């Protein structure tokens, strides 16, 4: 079984090709390039390097969110179009879970997060080996997240490039319980994405059309519209 | 050596520059095999205009569905295709990116060349689907995002001789419609009201002498001021009279300038393109003056005036013949300039 993995949920890019559980090739970069420009040439280049044709792909795994709306849409659009063109399944994976998987051997709680601006984050937390989700992925204020983690009074490993933004606050709240993943584990890896789903049952190809990113937030204009409707109904 | 055979050029075209998710299949640049458009008007109506983030989200939901439908309606397989075309710009960047990345992924899987098309070139080439284009040709492109006069000396040659300095004509229509409390999109409502009116409120015309440029923001402000003054005096405005006055101003400026340019450049054909060319008032006025002048004038049917992928496929067919090819690194260019190929 040959998998193509696509990770474009935030600024970093990762693409991987995995065959029968073996990573054949993987690229992980943090160059802040436009995904729209880099994703397709990178996929082409990696497949060429491992001597595979697009039609050799049996399944596609992609980060489905949360993250940058545009980044997610590029990854998901490329993934679903390749999948639909090949009539092969596409599987979405939480971008927070992929990131947390980098630190999955940590004996404690693993918390992955992305900055969502104005002291908010997209975050989730798992136990060792991601065997249990202790904080569901959500859009949450950093203070509230740290309070929840503090209540668990267990060591917490923080993963993600954006952790640096909140480091001071994290240490202030959790003290010696706070651990920070080394820099080599801060970038999401597309091979992890595949690792997380390769033993799961595959969705049917009929589901490709309805496959969309998990934004975790409705668009601003829609939120305002809903608010207005509620006001009108009172 | 194999025998040389003429092969049809069959293009799958994709367009997602604004709020329509569209795919079409075009044969030899002139024949529409299928033309699928998924409109977001019902969703965007709530906001009184197109919200870019909402548009992008809808495109992701629709993109593979419309491509599949275009192939199914054409009864074709990817192996029947010659190339994949997609709108590269101008447009909403987030919206453009969905079509572009889907087109690139599809082209990659099926090993097809990809062609990036300028949206305005598409609008102009919608006419090639109706009848052959005669050069030199003058195109008046009017839509929610554009008001341009484009001179074409031959296929693939574009010279923008006039453009709006502020609002696009369609944008002015939508804004005035909002002042008159009409639902989005406002253009068709104003057009209808203007035809029902027996009188017109007099509004100014922005001539910008010695130039083929346009300006509609002054006219829009004049309508707003008129309503404001009437409100202050406690008088009711007659929306039909306002609509007619506004439309007369827009139509007179567009017609006069297009005619002047057509004469100066001695063109053989004038075409109107873009969503606003569906406007009855504008169509009638242009038809009349060019009939008098003896210059051929064409407007594509309504479904080829508003955004669609058939027009992108038509332009791409000529680009393909001219040897134009894009790269897998193609990006959305929201402010893309109209250049000759
Ligand atoms: Zn348009």
Automatic annotation (TrEMBL), chain A:
Keywords per UniProt: Transferase
Residue stretches making up the Gcp-like domain: 34-225
GO-annotated molecular function: transferase activity
Gene3D superfamilies attached to this UniProt entry: 3.30.420.40
Pfam families assigned to the protein according to its UniProt record, in alphabetical order: TsaD
GO cellular component, one term: cytosol
Listed CDD domains: ASKHA_NBD_TsaB (cd24032)
Gene name, Swiss-Prot/TrEMBL: tsaB
GO biological process, one term: tRNA threonylcarbamoyladenosine modification
Protein name: tRNA (Adenosine(37)-N6)-threonylcarbamoyltransferase complex dimerization subunit type 1 TsaB
Coiled-coil region: none
Entries under InterPro entries matching the protein: ATPase_NBD, Gcp-like_dom, T6A_TsaB
């Amino acid at each position: 079984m040959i998998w193509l993995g696509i990770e474009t949920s935030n600024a970093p890019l990762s693409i991987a090709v995995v065959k029968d559980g073996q990573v054949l090739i993987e690229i992980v970069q943090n160059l802040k390039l436009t995904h729209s420009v880099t994703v397709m040439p990178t996929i082409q280049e990696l497949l060429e390097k491992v001597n595979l044709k697009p039609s050799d792909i049996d399944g596609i795994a992609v980060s489905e969110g949360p993250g940058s709306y545009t980044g997610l849409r590029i990854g998901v659009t490329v993934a679903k179009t390749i999948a639909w063109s090949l009539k092969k399944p596409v599987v979405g994976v939480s971008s927070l879970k992929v990131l947390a998987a980098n630190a999955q051997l940590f004996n404690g709680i693993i918390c992955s997060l992305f900055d969502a601006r104005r002291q908010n984050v997209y975050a989730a937390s798992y136990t060792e080996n991601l065997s249990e989700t202790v904080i569901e992925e959500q859009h949450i204020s950093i203070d509230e997240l740290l309070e929840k983690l503090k209540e668990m009074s267990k060591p917490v490993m923080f993963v993600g490039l954006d952790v640096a933004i909140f480091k001071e606050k994290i240490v202030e709240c959790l003290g010696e319980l706070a651990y920070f993943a080394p820099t080599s584990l801060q970038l999401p890896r597309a091979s992890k994405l595949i690792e997380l789903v390769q033993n799961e049952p595959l969705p049917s190809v009929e589901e490709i059309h309805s496959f969309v990113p998990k934004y975790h937030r409705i668009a601003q204009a829609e939120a305002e519209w809903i608010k207005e409707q509620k006001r009108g109904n009172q | 050596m194999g025998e040389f055979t003429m092969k049809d050029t069959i293009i799958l075209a994709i367009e997602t520059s604004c709020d329509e998710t569209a795919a079409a299949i075009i044969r030899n640049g002139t024949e529409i095999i299928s033309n699928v458009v998924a409109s977001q008007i019902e969703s965007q109506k709530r906001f009184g205009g197109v919200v870019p983030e909402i548009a992008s989200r809808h495109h992701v939901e629709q993109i593979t569905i419309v491509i599949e439908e275009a192939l199914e309606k054409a009864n074709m397989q990817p192996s029947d295709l010659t190339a994949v075309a997609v709108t590269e710009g101008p447009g909403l960047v987030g919206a453009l990116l969905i079509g572009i990345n889907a087109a690139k992924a599809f082209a990659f899987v099926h090993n097809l060349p990809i062609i990036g098309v300028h949206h305005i070139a598409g609008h102009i080439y919608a006419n090639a689907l109706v009848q052959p284009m005669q050069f030199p040709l003058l195109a008046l492109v009017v839509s929610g995002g554009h008001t341009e006069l484009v001179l074409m000396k031959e296929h693939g040659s574009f010279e923008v001789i006039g453009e709006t300095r502020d609002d696009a004509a369609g944008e002015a229509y939508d804004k005035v419609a909002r002042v008159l409390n009409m639902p989005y999109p406002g253009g068709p409502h104003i057009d209808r009201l203007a035809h029902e009116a027996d009188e017109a409120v007099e509004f100014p015309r922005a001539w910008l002498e010695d130039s083929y440029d346009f300006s509609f923001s002054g006219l829009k402000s004049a309508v707003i001021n008129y309503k404001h003054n009437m409100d202050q005096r406690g008088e009711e405005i007659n929306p039909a009279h306002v609509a007619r006055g506004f439309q007369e101003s827009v139509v007179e400026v567009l017609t006069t300038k297009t005619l002047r340019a057509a004469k100066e450049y001695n063109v053989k054909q004038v075409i109107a393109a873009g969503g606003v060319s569906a406007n009855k008032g504008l169509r009638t006025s242009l038809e009349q003056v060019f009939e008098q002048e003896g210059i051929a004038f064409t407007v594509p049917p309504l479904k080829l005036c508003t955004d669609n992928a058939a027009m992108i496929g038509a332009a791409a067919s000529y680009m393909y013949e001219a040897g134009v090819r894009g790269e897998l690194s193609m990006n959305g260019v929201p402010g893309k300039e109209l250049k000759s190929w």
